[in-house]
């Protein structure tokens, strides 16, 4: 986010000149000259920008940066918190002589185009490609292939490698409360996070802020990231503190506070919140928790709306709500399967069941539709690969789902088994997770692609952009 000065208000200025060989740079800040060097062009630019952000931090205010190299001139703003961003100008520079520094763009309101940002010592808003000095630049609208001194930088890049299948270009970035993480809706249309001012924010898939509101508590009191759930039949954001659930309607409005019993905990493996203790199950209704009577020896697994799915170790599962009226669901037997071994777990729209094989020693692992019991997909899996598998809803996406080593395309039923794979989160048509100690992305065919060293796992997919977090900032990056 830019911190623009008022029109006509002067600002400290730094001039950066990159040497033609890109191995050194001269920085002049308020009349004081300094030279930095780097082993690569990217390293030189990072070192130069470190000087500018360091000076901004010392004086406690943003610094205008006039950055130049053989390719052109970039006018940037370095802020005290280590952020460097493009300073937009209304039209391309017409004269070859440097123009006066333009007024940095004000942050847009909801629905406006956001100023793109990078953190710390990023490359002067250039995307360096493999090859001798190959550079991709974005120009102002209408500038076409203007001379170098007419170029302006409005593209930014990550200062660490991107995860597989995504670009290092940053479409937008936001600062996060220290140690916090954002939440991305499973459908990929909404993003929520807590900023350094302890305000809860909601963005749409275009990166526009829909609303923000002050938290009724400090961000350090939150237990995990804010999440998207169904509440009262509508999309909502839920945040949890010790002994309390807080709900904000996605369309905006005041928070609803619901206490949690001391011996109970909240679970988020369905579309709604399930609160359960050893003996009782509850769902949020209005401003209170309503008890749900679980039939027989079944255990509550997840909540969808105000209904709870309850299952026994082997046999049909049951949907039941606060008003009773249980509905029993029988699992369809997969091809090549014998008797049911056990109901493993229920995650999002699916109940995962182990079946005995008709032939061989492998277990038949099947995803069943939780509403009607039909088989969505199945695979033969070595039982040893299913030991110590964690029941996680993160790998249950809309385009691809995973449980342990099995990945499944629910639309086609195509499945694959990746021995040793630990899935963490579904991101579009891929699931990210760990394989032999490395971060990988796996598609429906089971083909893993290893992430480069230093890449971080996405937190979700917002539209077509992956959301990644680094140094208490979130970045939305497009596909390659």
TrEMBL record:
Keyword hit for Transmembrane: yes
Transmembrane segments: 115-140
The organism's place on the tree of life at top rank: Bacteria
Keyword Transmembrane helix: yes
Keywords noted in UniProt: Membrane, Transmembrane, Transmembrane helix
Source organism: Nocardiopsis codii
Residue span of region Disordered: 88-111
Protein name: Uncharacterized protein
UniProt biased composition (Pro residues): 93-105
